[in-house]
Amino acid sequence: MKTIPHWIGGAATPGSATRTAAVWDPATGRQQARVLLADAADVQRAVSVAATAFEEWSEASLSKRTSVLFAFRELVNARMDDLAAIVSDEHGKVLSDARGEVQRGLEVIEFACGIPQLLKGDYSDQVSTGVDSYSFRQPLGVVAGITPFNFPVMVPCWMHPVAIACGNTFVLKPSERDPSASMLVAELWAEAGLPGGVFNVVHGDRTAVDALLDAEQVAAVSFVGSTPIARYIHGRASAAGKRVQALGGAKNHAVVLPDADLEFAANHLTAAAFGSAGQRCMAISAAVAVGTAGDALIEILRDRAATVRVGPGRDGASEMGPLVTREARERVVGYIDSGAAQGATLVVDGRDLVVPGHEDGFFVGPTVLDHVTAEMDAYRAEIFGPVLVVTRVDTLDEAIALINTNPYGNGTAVFTSSGESARRFQREVTVGMIGVNVPIPVPMAYHSFGGWKDSLFGESHIHGPEGVRFYTRAKVVTSRWPQVARPVAASYHFPTAS
Ligand code: NAD
Q1: By CB distance 3.0 to 4.6 Å, which of 50, 178, 234, 452 could disulfide with 90?
Q2: Structural domain of residue 11, as residue ranges?
């Protein structure tokens, strides 16, 4: 069976630890590989190598950095299908969806290709007589990325192209559930001409994460994953004096107003709830039907959910694949059970779905639960599976209040034909990313991505302009070149302009 190694100093390496974790084929339920789990010594080696590489890489000119980034962009683009196939095989998502995630990662690389423009400083001439002031930004050093299973290419790409373009070196700890895509990405960086040690991959679990959080030479940590771990990472890395951005989980509500095109809303809700088997941090997992929209919406959702084609990710006919692991499947089925037991109406039930020829795969079919209340576990939990809960309210005010009471604040959407309602909605919800008749409002690479409340710990959103700020720190220089002909007397009072 294949063993997936680490990537340190520009080459694949087994490291010293021998613990491994199983990598499953979610479509068949069979183990397809094992991945090495780093211990603290392996992590420290990667960090030390990255710290040494920083000495040179931080001195590389902007032209040198952009030439590597442009080459990397070309290689990722050329290998898009290979990357998508690896993602589909280990995650389970369908190929077209995997290609979409690689494309969105590629767009961050393209954004990072513009680093000379992004790092241009400011200059103020003559702030005082004969004095100029200017500011510029410098890299931090070694920065670490800890990423979730659900976007094994895109989410790391939110981090490393920007961090490396800014002159940092990077240690990635990807999810141990789908680790292989990061190895191909490492090879492509090397092929693009990135010096060894600038981009490193250590696989592992909590042991590796803790070692990264405690490593003295790690200056900053970007994390994306579930809320409990995001909170933990933020606390521990902040206590160690590191800069941290920790993006957490979500419960994304889509409000459907009675004036919406219900056919359009139901089609988009179905795709946003069941695409990638609901394993997206921006998936719509709660529909909030306002007033008379409810009954009509449910009828169309029932029809649409029942016709989603579920099958293995590699089958071109599949619209939705399996869940990532057997445990994930059991957790999702448990929430459907509890919703039904706590009084929700099971409109479409995906628990017994069987995909012929893939009886042991981790499949759950699209599921719709109606009349779900805010007290039920199926509403409170981030189910992270193909389950859409529908809550009924009477007014837009109630819908906004429901969203604002929810601890998560990642994404939300409103379906309406009223500009006035949409404007009120976007101004009043306590959520970071908002869609107006757009169910999955993931910002483009040149904007920044981030939620509010329990969906993000730290001040910075990720990638885009905030990513550049996160991976750099500012210097301001105040400069004078004294002229012999115009002597300037020293003064004992606090400096003021003259
Ligand atoms: P996870 O929190 O279980 O794991 C994320 C990372 O943390 C992995 O690398 C994992 O190895 C590590 N980890 C897990 N347990 C740990 C522990 N006890 N101590 C230290 N490190 C630990 O998340 P996941 O299941 O891989 O991904 C799904 C979650 O990620 C969902 O909650 C989803 O909403 C969230 N997510 C959020 C965003 C966002 O942008 N806000 C994007 C993608 C995914």
Answers
A1: 178
A2: 3-248+455-477
